[in-house]
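stage 2 :: seqdesign
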């Protein structure tokens, strides 16, 4: 049982845990206006690719409930506008666009029905997307679990737990499943600059699960690998191209290079909803650039001169050659990644 939820639907409102305030405060927000959901995604109040997908779907459902018309055709057009607006929230995590497409497909599939019925279908679909995400993550975790052996020291980056998903987690879900199966190991947690998803969120989740962990500065990974203190690296993903190139939190690429140099296996864990099969490789993945403010100040504290020129890329692309395998809900895609990804995509559940 996971004693917190990143996001849930409750009586035509969305309840979400404000991740900006963790770990100091555990505050749940209630959102009933889809514009507030866009803001929540933009400000990382809710974050992590699968959780962003769920938030987008629930935002779309809220937007649908807000539309005041009895004309189904007008409703569907205005619903499409709502989805277009939500799609602007963040550019890299493909789960956001995937979820909105699913919501629009539902509106299309029930085109002949009344507005009241369309609204019901959309609210239902958003909840299905949340439920499915937990099931998918649990399957993914079972596939990844055997990779984690007793005595391992595992390194992870950013936050990929229940907070970053509908529930359970992806990369952290694999660690959770291994722990629940009785494996005993420890985790190096990259702090994950600049927004400290590792220091603030991953430590908080590991503490709750009971897995031993040690927080490290992002720059410490090389030294630890050199001392043979890292047996395996596991991270999540925001978007994976058809050939396996993977966008994830900035700093992931450097970890993968280090892992290759030191002969450490490097795994990505992500559901199939994080794959963008339309993109042949990672060069086509849009990488979000976030405000300079995030590097110049931290929680109101100034840490660099106000006019400092800043490049604040939120993600980087790890080339497929550096990835040992990608853990999905249908199994692990091993090298060569392009063909095994295609195999998993076409496989039946
Ligand atoms: O900017 P964030 O916090 O949304 O970035 C999150 C990540 O990079 C995660 O590793 C990724 O979304 C996978 S979450 C299961």
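stage 2 :: out
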């Amino acid at each position: 049982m996971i004693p917190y939820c990143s996001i849930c639907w409750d009586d035509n409102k969305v309840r979400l845990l404000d991740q900006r305030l963790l770990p100091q405060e555990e505050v749940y927000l209630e959102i009933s206006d889809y514009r507030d959901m866009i803001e929540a995604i933009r400000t990382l109040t809710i974050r992590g690719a699968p959780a962003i997908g769920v938030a987008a779907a629930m935002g779309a459902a809220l937007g649908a409930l807000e539309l005041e018309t009895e004309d189904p055709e007008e409703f569907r057009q205005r619903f499409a506008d709502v989805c277009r607006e939500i799609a602007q929230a963040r550019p890299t995590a493909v789960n956001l666009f995937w979820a909105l497409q699913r919501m629009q497909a539902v509106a299309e599939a029930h085109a002949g029905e009344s507005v009241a019925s369309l609204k019901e279908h959309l609210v239902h679909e958003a909840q299905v997307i949340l439920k499915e995400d937990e099931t998918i993550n649990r399957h993914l975790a079972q596939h990844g679990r055997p990779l984690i052996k007793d005595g391992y020291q595992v390194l992870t980056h950013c936050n990929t737990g229940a907070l970053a998903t509908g529930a359970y987690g992806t990369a952290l879900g694999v660690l959770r499943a291994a722990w629940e199966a009785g494996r005993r190991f420890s985790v190096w947690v990259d702090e994950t600059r600049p927004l400290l998803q590792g220091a603030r969120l991953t430590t908080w989740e590991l503490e709750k699960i009971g897995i031993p962990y040690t927080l490290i500065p992002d720059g410490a990974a090389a030294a630890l690998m050199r001392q043979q203190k890292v047996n395996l690296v596991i991270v999540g993903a925001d978007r994976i191209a058809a050939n396996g190139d993977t966008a994830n939190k900035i700093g992931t690429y450097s970890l993968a290079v280090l892992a290759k140099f030191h002969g450490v296996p490097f795994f990505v864990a992500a559901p199939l909803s994080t794959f963008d099969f339309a993109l042949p490789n990672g060069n086509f993945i849009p990488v979000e650039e976030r405000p300079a403010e995030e590097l110049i100040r931290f929680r109101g504290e100034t840490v660099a001169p106000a006019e400092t020129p800043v490049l604040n890329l939120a993600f980087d692309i790890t080339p497929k050659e550096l990835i040992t395998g990608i853990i999905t809900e249908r199994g692990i895609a091993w090298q060569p990644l392009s063909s095994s990804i295609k195999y998993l995509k076409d496989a039946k559940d």
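stage 3 :: structure notes
- Residues 143-348 form a domain with the Rossmann fold fold (CATH 3.40.50.10470).
- The chain has a mean pLDDT of 97.
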